[in-house]
Amino acid sequence: MLKELIQNLMKDPGMYARLQSNQLQLAGISEVEQRALVDVIGSRSDKNEVMKSMFWAKF
Amino acid sequence: MDDFERLIEKEFRDNLQAYFIVPHMYELGIACVEEKLRESMLFGKLTVLHYRIFEGTGDGIFRAAAAVELMVLSLDIIDDLQDKDNKGMAWNQMAPEIALNIALGLLTLSQQMLLTSEFALERTHEAAQVMSKQILTAINGQTTDLQNDITNEEDYLCMVRQKSAALLVAACMIGTLLATGEWNAQVRDYAEELGIAAQIKNDIGDLLNWENKNDFWNRKKTLPTLYLLESISEEESWILDYFEKRLQLEDVFHRREEIEKILEQTGTLLYTSVRMRTHYYNYLELVNKLGMDSYWTDQIIALAE
Fold first, then answer.
1. The complex's ipTM?
2. Which of A22, B127, B211, B303 is deepest in the core (most CB within 10 A)?
3. Does A2 touch chain B (CB under 8 A)?
4. Entry pTM
């Protein structure tokens, strides 16, 4: 589930970095959630801060 | 939509003049309406857009759109009175009992405008029924919100569907109904997704805005705070103590920077942003599934941006 995935991501910087470089398999979440997760992480403004997230999605 | 603002404003002024007949009431009503005219009027635009998408013609739809905007305005006023929020708005420059009276007048006027619009009786009846039903749904959701009677995400989504999404559904469906005479479940579905996305976005903002009403200080149960409470560590259990009133505001007020850091590090902001975007993507997918001309699809999507 998405919640557990993100909780694990936040505890594991390595996992977060693999997600950023598209090396992480995202099992257990829907396709639209995967797309949203990848897009939100990809839209963060400062790529040097691994744990920073872009919380304002444009819509 | 070039004439939208002009025609909507005319409907506002003409109808307030007709029904807010006590002079002071008219002035107060106009002051509230002028706040609305300074905004984007998304709801009214959705009503007009859906009417046009489903091949409705003529300018009668602008009265219905103005009615929808007055419905939203009245509920916004009541919400601000209940939350003691948005102190700069015109209705908060009035005594609350006066503002409430104006809101009641605007809400009733919205129904009257719909019922006296130029459409066939059957269609105005259907549209008025949708408006009433969605207002009642929103009031139910608002009750849950006011009582902060939410314990999990399912409760939250149910409340948001009622409190917020119901009004977007009303705006889209009234335009659709007036054009076609029929309820459209696909329109309902995407309007609901947009409403949920919009409310989640509001709730993120209300958590991060420390200057005005703040959902953390107010111990509000929203999607981000529910996630936060499930994600904090043992060292951060003081947050749960605060939400469960074992700690008071003065005990935690100085820890704002720490709270901001915890919101980031627990993934609260990331999770809530992903959830918001997921509902937005659902909305886009459902709009595209309707199979309408790309011109109209682009218009609907542009309104949400």
1. 0.84
2. B127
3. yes
4. 0.90
Residue B231: list chain A partners with CB under 8 A.
Answer: 7, 10
* CB atoms closer than 10 angstroms to residue B76: 21
Tell me the C-alpha distance between B259 and B240, whole Å. 12
**Kind and range of the H or E element at B80?**
helix B61-83
Domain extent listing, chain A = 2-42
Q: B101 is written with which tokens?
A: 């009276």
Who among A7, A39, A58 is closest to B267 (CB)? A7
Q: What is the pLDDT of residues B7-25, one digit of tens each?
A: 999 999 999 999 999 879 9
A52 near B CB under 8 A:
yes
Please, what is the Cα angle at B158 between B156 and B159, to 5 degrees? 65
Asked whether the beta carbons of residue A59 and residue B273 sit closer than 8 angstroms, the reply is no
Which residue is associated with the tokens 């009234």? B174
- Express each pLDDT in B196-225 by its tens digit: 999 999 999 999 888 778 999 999 999 999
Distance from CA of A27 to the nearest CA of B (A): 16
Spatial distance between the Cα atoms of B59 and B232, rounded to a whole number of angstroms = 55
If you measure CA to CA, which chain A residue comes closest to B280? Answer: A59
Backbone φ and ψ of B58, nearest 5°: 90, 170
Tokens of B18: 């007709």
Backbone φ/ψ region at B150: left (φ over 0), alpha (ψ -120 to 50), beta:
beta
- For residue B245, CA distances in Å to A41, B84, B229 come to 34, 21, 14
> Which of the four pLDDT bands, split at 50, 70 and 90, describes residue B1?
low
Residue B158 and residue B195 in contact, taking contact as beta carbons nearer than 8 Å: no
Please answer whether residues B168 and B198 qualify as being in contact, where contact means their C-beta atoms are separated by less than 8 angstroms.
yes
